[in-house]
Fold this protein.
Amino acid sequence: MNDFLRRLLFLPEQASSVAREIDTLHYFVIGITMVGATGVFIAALWWSIRYRARSFEASSTTPQVQAGLAVEGGLLAFLVVLFIVFWVVGFSQYLRMRIPPRDAMVVYVTGKQWMWKFAYPEGKQTINTLVVPANRNVQLVMTSRDVIHSFYVPAFRVKQDVLPGRYYTTWFRATRPGTYRIYCAEYCGLSHSAMWGDVVALEADDYERWLEGEPLENFVQLPPGPPMARVATGLGPDLPAYPRGIAEASQPRSMADWGREVAALKGCLACHTLDGQPHIGPTWRNLWYRETPLADGRVIIADEAYLTRSMMDPMLELVQGYAPVMPTYQGLLEPAEVGAILELIRSISEPLPTPARAPEPLVRPPLPPGSLDRVDPARALEFIRETSERVTP
Ligand SMILES: [Cu+2]
């Protein structure tokens, strides 16, 4: 039944843990609206024949018919309940999709004109080919180097926009080994159509062997990659043709080690320690997903989004008990370097407890700086009042 409906609606294969559920909701909504629309159409047709004007006199004296309260109220209640059911099912799926399980392995993703780059905690880097183990939760921490892109894997039912200067996260679990197409789903310039790649899901053993240096070709036959060489049309910078699956600029060291180098090089370690001792700034030990008290009294969970904001906009959320002396690193750290620092912080923190059941909604979806939840209503009113006075004479 599932497969029949999937083909009927031209949906791609279902290769992730959430794909089936999402499609089921889709069938449910489409099915109900089809039945509803057909019902309305048949009723309209039937009534327009049954109550047609039989003569001119009859048509000018048609009595007005009023439905009873019970009928109207009943219909309304039925529809409201129906829509609430859609919402409850959809929203709970949304939460499950938004909140990465805590046992997920992390891959850092950077979109840029016109390719996807992937950095793995173990130090490997790939272009346009995301290699993951099948049947394992994978969390993507994503950003863009230049314009808005959107990471889209139809077979996983995963799509996430990435904006420059901000971090996003999404996750998936590939349910079987295979090759699944990645698209950029946000028009991003001249060669947007060449911005695609593949997720290669390998058996766990093969994945380990790939990490240790075996070429990807030993495990899968990859289709030819996007025409990177042809991307260079003379309008943009010349892009080299990257052979796919071959690691470019792979680090012989792990991302955490690289993060240590970055932290030393960029001067972070002048104020932060890795051993648990507070210094000019808080220590990074055990900071990962820890509850951090802020100067304004709120307590925030130090997830990827918060940690990144702390580097890009340190004054936005000051840690309680520390002076506002940290400079901003906006534009001074490459996305992959931010990823490396995050990996460093993760590596010197206690591993997170794995929840027994579905992940609890502890991790908030990343909020862009300046988003609604930190607008102080009193200050907003004050601001409106001030600006209004200036405008009205
Ligand atoms: Cu793009």
